[in-house]
Design brief:
92 residues, 21% helix
């Protein structure tokens, strides 16, 4: 009986828990590489993008996020390189 109760309790608690949240990005033209990595090497030039987002300015523990994206030009017809570094701070 105790196994049933602990099993049901575990299922109920696991349904109410929430894990990490995806970073909220509102400037899609600047974050294409983060959304779709297959776009690496789409241009004939190097594109470097840095974005800082600060929600609820002035409130302690407010969410903030940073993104650094580098998209290099196409090396050959089928090969492109890009890198995205993302950091998000949520809560106190």
């Amino acid at each position: 009986m105790m196994k049933w109760i602990s099993g049901i309790l575990f299922i109920c608690l696991s349904c109410s828990l929430s894990g990490q949240q995806e970073q909220l990005l509102t400037q899609f033209p600047y974050t294409k590489l983060l959304v779709n990595p297959a776009l690496a090497g789409e241009n004939d030039f190097t594109r470097v993008t840095a974005i800082h987002r600060d929600q609820w300015s002035g409130i302690q523990g407010a969410p903030s996020g940073q993104l650094l994206s580098v998209n290099l030009p196409t090396v050959s017809n089928n090969l492109g390189f890009g890198i995205s570094l993302s950091r998000q701070t949520v809560g106190i």
